[in-house]
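Sanity check

After download, print the first record. It should look like this:
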Amino acid sequence: MSFKFVTNEDLFREAFQPVSKAESFVWIGTADIKDMHVPERGSVRSFLSLLNDLCLRRVEIRLLHAKEPGPNFRSSFDKYPRLMECMERQLCPRVHFKHIIIDGKLAYTGSANLTGAGLGIKGANTRNFEAGIITGDGSESADEVNTGFAPAADVFSLQVLDDSGRA
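Expected structure tokens:
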């Protein structure tokens, strides 16, 4: 098994930039998600725009997050109606892990939420201090992160219940 330890601003380059090159699927699990904008060719673009491009290429996208995104995320999401059709998005308040799994070949697990501060793309004085492990060699280590995502991924087919057992 081959692992690479990454921290802070390297998280974006090593764990997140490869999302745009996905060929078959991207699974993302995060406790928090924001209307993140990512650098691209000297400018920035919405993370949701990137996901929309993946949809156009028929890449399967699953986004599992713990809390409802804020109004900025929802406003940006509305600009990409294709995402409603092609992306599985599920709210599950029990999710605390942070995973990115790309085509079953690259997997990230660590502390960073899917936010600019979490992935180190904010300024040096405004980013969070984060760390994680990436495997990108297509080995069984990527399979282990896939397997770790599986129990939580079951919520895509189940109705999420609150602590009292109500939907």
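If your output differs, re-run the checksum step. Summary of this record's structure: Residues 140-153 form the longest helix (14 residues).
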